């Protein structure tokens, strides 16, 4: 029988609010009991439990990353199974207990092959599914994707990737204004795959049409799309104003000006923002030269840019850094930050019944943060990844 754990003394962030001096009981892989919000916790002592004193710390749900290309020197697009697992573990060390593996633009047969490999890891529970970013994106807004490999979103090609993922395709980013875009959005919705609008040159009106067809996510809002203009509001305004859309934000201090983040967060509201990493191999690893798909990237002072052209090429972000920045620099509340890092992406993925919040019966996935919001412990399914 698995050993029970009592995490005692921390500020515990629940869906209903933060409980000071709370006690969380873990039994096996699940959360058995949490403190009651708004009241001093007097939960009964579990005699055979290991008690961990977390006085002066925070306990928050494990982070959920919707959009992540790699880490620890490893790529989810081109690495071996061992490489992918290394990248996943790197992000777990930083509090990401649920991760969707993202690919970048490649040949269709290659992407289908990668989907087969990643689906095996999803079946094992190592990743939460697959996100295809490209090749169905606009050459005008390609970012760090190979223009030679881009193509219009033919529904037959989209279906090929869905089938190759064997039920583990979670999201696909596409420029919905391209030929076949709207039909592809409808196809994705019919198959329970999130249609994400991104790397797009769409107008406001074209974006509204895509949302009405079933698109529900803005891939890294502001980045790789037309800017907000007073006569041509473009996709940003349409994505921010529609209650059906969750907006991804990369809060690393490079991708977004703080004023843009504030605009998005407060216009969309705390329940419609998902902080992501869009991380590439260098996350948790260091500066140097890397490959992102077929393109060479140089990481200097933790900023990744294409060697040719200088476009930003993903990030080196980990979600613990996004958490700390949100609270200490952007002035967001801990509770709203938890929504953006855990609850909202979990709901979007259809996983909120098991992850995304600290509630009895859910997976024992949680992060221990000190008073400065640095990671001091990570628990995944009841086992310490980082022991406090």
Automatic annotation (TrEMBL):
Its EC number is 3.5.1.25. Gene3D superfamilies: Metal-dependent hydrolases, Urease, subunit C, domain 1. GO terms for molecular function: N-acetylglucosamine-6-phosphate deacetylase activity. It holds the Pfam family Amidohydro_1. CDD domains: NagA. Keywords: Carbohydrate metabolism, Hydrolase, Metal-binding. Residues 58-385 form the Amidohydrolase-related domain. Belongs to the metallo-dependent hydrolases superfamily. NagA family. This is N-acetylglucosamine-6-phosphate deacetylase. The gene is nagA.
């Amino acid at each position: 029988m698995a050993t029970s754990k009592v995490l005692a003394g921390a500020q515990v962030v629940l869906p209903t609010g933060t409980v000071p001096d709370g006690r969380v009981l873990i039994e096996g892989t699940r959360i058995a009991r949490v403190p009651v919000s708004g009241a001093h916790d007097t939960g009964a002592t579990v005699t055979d439990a290991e008690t961990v004193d977390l006085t002066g710390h925070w306990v928050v749900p494990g982070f959920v990353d919707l959009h992540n290309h790699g880490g620890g020197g490893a790529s989810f697009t081109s690495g071996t199974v061992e490489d992918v697992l290394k990248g996943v573990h790197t992000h777990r060390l930083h509090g990401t207990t649920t991760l969707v593996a993202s690919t970048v633009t490649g040949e269709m047969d290659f992407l289908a092959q990668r989907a087969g490999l990643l689906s095996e890891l999803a079946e094992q529970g190592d990743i939460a599914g697959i996100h295809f970013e490209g090749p169905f994106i606009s050459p005008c807004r390609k970012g760090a994707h190979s223009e030679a490999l881009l193509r219009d979103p033919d529904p037959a090609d989209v279906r090929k990737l869905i089938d190759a993922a064997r039920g583990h395709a979670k999201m696909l980013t596409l420029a919905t204004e391209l030929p076949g875009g709207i039909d592809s959005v409808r196809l994705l919705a019919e198959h329970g795959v999130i249609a994400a609008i991104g790397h797009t040159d769409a107008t406001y009106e074209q974006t509204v049409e895509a949302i009405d067809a079933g698109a529900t996510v803005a891939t890294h809002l502001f980045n790789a799309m037309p800017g907000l203009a007073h006569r041509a509001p473009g996709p940003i305004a349409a994505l921010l104003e529609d209650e059906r859309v969750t907006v991804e934000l990369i809060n690393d201090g490079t991708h977004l000006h703080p004023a843009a983040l504030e605009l998005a967060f407060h216009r969309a509201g705390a329940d419609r923002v998902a902080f992501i990493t869009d991380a590439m191999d260098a996350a948790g690893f260091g500066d140097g030269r890397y490959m992102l798909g077929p393109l060479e990237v140089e990481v200097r002072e933790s900023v990744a840019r294409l060697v040719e052209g200088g476009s930003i090429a993903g990030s080196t972000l980990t979600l613990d850094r996004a958490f700390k920045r949100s609270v200490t620099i952007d002035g967001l509340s801990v509770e709203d930050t938890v929504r953006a890092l855990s609850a909202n992406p979990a709901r979007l993925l259809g996983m909120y019944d098991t992850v995304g919040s600290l509630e009895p019966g859910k997976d024992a996935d949680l992060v221990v943060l000190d008073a400065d919001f640095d990671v001091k412990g990570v628990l995944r399914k009841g086992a310490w990844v980082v022991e406090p």
